[in-house]
Amino acid sequence: MVIKGVVPNDFTYTVVIISLVKEGLHEDAFKTFDEMKNNGFVPEELTYNMLINLNAKNGNRDEVQRLYEDMRFRRVAPSNYTCATLISLYYKYEDYPRVLSLFKEMARNKIPADEVIYGLLIRVYGKLGLYEDACKTFEKIKHQGLLTNEKTYLAMAQVHLTSGNVDKALEVIGLMKSKNIWFSRFAYIVLLQCYVTKENVVATEGTFLALCKTGLPDAGSCNDVLNLYVRLNLMDKANEFIVRIRDNGTHFDEELYRTVMKICCKEGMLLEAKHLTNQM
């Protein structure tokens, strides 16, 4: 890359690569990146981050890993942002051992973790059944004053819920509410799961109504409510609920459809079953 006879330096290469990425000329950006290294220049952390993030968005895991390893080889210190991008990618593809390995590497290199990274770590601990580690991490960030995001609270609530400790899950959601953190649609879904597990019909119905105010209910929540009614033999409520979600245009996934058809056949709701089958 020679512009008007001027030999580029590391700053020039960096500016060009950033410009190419912003213009969507990704192939040219990578060619310029390779040229930069071949000419003896060491890319900055910013340049690596931009290319790592670009590949992460496209799901190019091997290329992300190659860039990260090249970064380390050239002694370019990764930042919190670099690690967050990698951890998010590893989590997305359920590569949990790599998440834990990178987190340990961050600790060794004294790279500070933020709430996003800690939140993903809590989820990973939950997936691996490391309940105590998830709890310790949550308490750690709470004491550090990093606990501000709804996603972190809900991650911990889900870990409690999965481990069978519903009261603890509700305690975490209650703590989130006490901090005046806005309840998203997902928060109502998690709260609904808690009340269904506790078999609290009144609280379940109230939470479902709150969920409906955010838009059409999701199939999973509808299935949870129906299974609660069946479990408690509240078949009149189950039948009314089926008619309601059918009429309001709720999307039925395979599991919800199966649950509804089972109830309809058991209760002799053949017309409802036929009507629902025609809609699917």
Automatic annotation (TrEMBL):
Limits of the PROP1-like PPR domain: 93-201
Source taxon at top rank: Eukaryota
Naturally occurring in which organism (per UniProt): Trifolium medium
Signal peptide: none
Keyword Transmembrane helix: no
Alphabetically ordered keywords of this record: Repeat
InterPro entries: PPR_rpt, PROP1-like_PPR_dom, TPR-like_helical_dom_sf
Keyword GTP-binding: no
UniProt repeat feature PPR, residue ranges: 9-43, 44-78, 114-148, 253-280
Official protein name in the record: Pentatricopeptide repeat-containing protein
